[in-house]
Design brief:
heterodimer; A: Rossmann fold; Rossmann fold; 2 domains; four-stranded mixed beta sheet; B: 283 residues; alpha/beta; eight-stranded mixed beta sheet; 10 helices; 8 strands; binds thiamine diphosphate; binds magnesium ion
Amino acid sequence: MGDIVAVTGNEACAQAFKQINPDVCAAYPITPATDLMQRFSSFVNDGKVDTELVLVESEHSAMSACIGAAAAGGRVATATSSQGLALMWEMLYIAAGTRLPIIMPLVNRALSAPLNIHGDHSDGMGARDTGWIQLYSENAQEAYDNTIQAFRIAEHLDIRVPAMVCMDGFIVSHSIERVEYIDDADVKKFVGEFQAVNPLLDMDKPKSYGPLILTDMYHEYKRAQHEVMTKVPNIVREVAADFEKMTGRKYDLFETYRLDDAEIAVVVMSSAAGTTKDIIDQYREKGIKVGLLKPRMFRPFPFLEIAEALQHLKAIAVLDRADSFGGYGPLFSEITGAVMSMNSKPAVINKIFGLGGRDYLPDQAEQVLDELVTIAKTGKVETIKEYIGVRE
Amino acid sequence: MPSLQDYKGQDPAWCPGCGNFGILNTFRDAMVELDMNPHQFTVVSGIGQAAKFPHYIKCNTFNGLHGRALPVATGIRLANHEQPVMVFTGDGDCYGEGGNHFIHTMRRNINVKLFVHDNQIYGLTKGQASPTSMEGMKTKNQPFGVFSEQMSPMALAVAMDCSFVARTFAADSEHLKAMIKAALNHNGFTLVDILQPCVTFNKINTFQWYKERVYHIEPDYDPENRVQAFQRALEWGDRIPLGILYKNNRPALEDRIPIISNKSLLKQQLNPLKLEETLREFY
Ligand SMILES: Cc1ncc(C[n+]2csc(CCOP(=O)(O)OP(=O)(O)O)c2C)c(N)n1
Ligand SMILES: [Mg+2]
C-alpha cells in the first residue's frame, strides 16, 4: 500500500503526474492551477521525472504545444483553469478531433466578467461540447484517483480521446485532506507503457493531421467521433474495476448515496456532494427518504444509466455550479434529457448555486430538500430554475 | 483644479516596498499637475499586479482579460478619441500573453498611452519568468533557468517604428513623471516601459540592481534618429538608458479615419434620414 498523506488537491494531482512521468508538459500559469504545475516543476527540478516541461506564452500556445507533442507520439499532460481553458477553446476541438489522448486537470474556476478567481463549473461546462472526456472529482482523493485513471481511459486503443479531470478551485485544489497514495510501481503498472498511435515521428510512415474535409466526409468524421464517445462508458467502468482491484476504492460513471429506496434526491457534482451527503444523513434520521446522485463522468453523459438510477423517484433537484444564461443549468439539461427515457417522469427542479466560490452551506441543502418534500407531496413545481444562496 | 485626494481609489494590496507604489503616486501627481480630472480619461488594464492599477485610482476604468488591454483601449479610443486612454499593464500581460496586440497596436499607431510595469516577472501568479526575464533566471517553474532570450521591448518598438518609445524607473519619480507627461503630450501610440522592482519574486533585478545601472540619456540625444535609437534600445546590462529613446511624427490612426477625423464617434448624431439616402444610392 502507498503512503497516507495530508495534501491539497493540486499536490495530489502533481503526485499523479510525477508517478506517471509524462513525456511532455506545456503549461501557462493561472490561479488556482498554477500551484499544480509549480509542484510538478519541482519534481522536474529534482530529477524525479524526465518530463520535458515548457512554459509558453499563453494557454493557446500551451494546448497547441501539447497537441504537437501528442501528435508526434508523446504522452502529454497539462493543467489549467478558467480563462486559461477559455483561451484554449479552439485547440480543445483540435485535440479531440485529431484524437490525441492529452490529460488535463481542470481546476474549476469562474469566468470573467467580472473577474473572480474562485471555484465554479463555468469553465468546464463551456468546454462540454469539445469532444473531451470530463471526470469531476469531489475531493483530493478523487482528483488523484481520477487523474491516474484518466491516462488509462484516454489512451485506451479503442478510443484515444483527451480527458479533463475537474476539481473545485480552492475548495479542493488548495485544501489539505487525507489522501491515500498508490505506490509508484503500482501506478506505473496500472497506467502501462504509452503506445503511440500514428505518430508524426514515425519517419517511415508519413502522416497528416487535420487536413481539409468539406461536405463530402466531414459529417461522417463527426459521426465517427460520436461513435467513439459511445464506447467510453464501458472503458471507464473497465478501468474503474481494475482500479478497485488495486486500491479497494470504487468508481463508476456516477456515485449514488442512499438512493435505492429514496423518494426524493439531489443531483450535484464535485465538492458540494460531500456537504449534501451530511444533510441527507440528518434528513434520513428524521425518516425522510432522500438520496443523492453525483455524476462523475459528465462527458460522455451516461443518460440511460442515470435514468435507471433515478426513475423510482418522485422529485429531483439538480444543483448546477454554472449557469447557461437564458437556459437551464447544464447539468439540469442533461438530467432532464435522461428523464425523457423514463416511463413515469419525476418532477425535476434546477438550483444554481455557488457561483464564483460562493459557499455552499448546509442551510442551502436543507432549503432544497424541504422544497423537494413539498413537491413530492403535492406533485406541484412552483419554479423550475432558481438561484440559491443569493444575498438579497 | 483636481487634488490628489480626488484620485484616491481602493487601498493597494501590493507587497510593502513594491515598485508599483512609486508609479501610482507619481501618476497621481502628474495628473494633478496636468490639471486632468479623474472623469476626463479612461484607464484600461488586463490582469496582473500592474493591472490592478485602475482599482487604486478613481477614474473611468475597464479591467478586462489577461493580455487583452490594448484591443479594448483601441475600441474605446475609436468610439471617443477626445478623451485620453491609458493602459497600465505588466510585462507578462503586454509582452507575453498580449504580445501580438502589442505589435499590431504599434503598427496602427492609435493614440493610446501604454505604461508597462516591467518587473521582469509574473508577479500575480507568484514568480514565473516573463518575456523580459533575463536568460538563466531560475524560478519555480523554470528550474533549469530561463532558456529563452530576453525580449527587448525597446528594440522591438523601435523596429516597429513605434511613434514614441521611452524607458523610465519606478523609483526615479521626477523622471517617471516627465515621461508620463511627455507621453500624454505626444500624438500617437506611446510606449513607456517602467523598470519596477518586484520585492517578492524577482531577487535578481532589485532596486539596487537597477539603481546601479540606470542613467539618464544625455540632453543632446536626438530621439528621431532611428538607427541610433536602435543602438540605445539594445543597451542592457551594465548600463540601462532612461529617457525618450525614440519618437517620430507618424500620423495617429484617429487622424486618418475619415469619419472620425473631425468629430468623435460619440458626438456624432445618428441620422436615420441620412441612412435612407445612403441606402438609396444602392438602388
Ligand atoms: C488567460 C489567462 N491566463 C493566465 C492568467 C493568470 N495570470 C494572471 S496575471 C499573469 C501574469 C502577470 O504578470 P505581469 O503581466 O508581468 O504582471 P505583474 O503581476 O508582474 O504585475 C498571469 C499568468 C489569466 N488571468 N488569464
Ligand atoms: Mg510583471
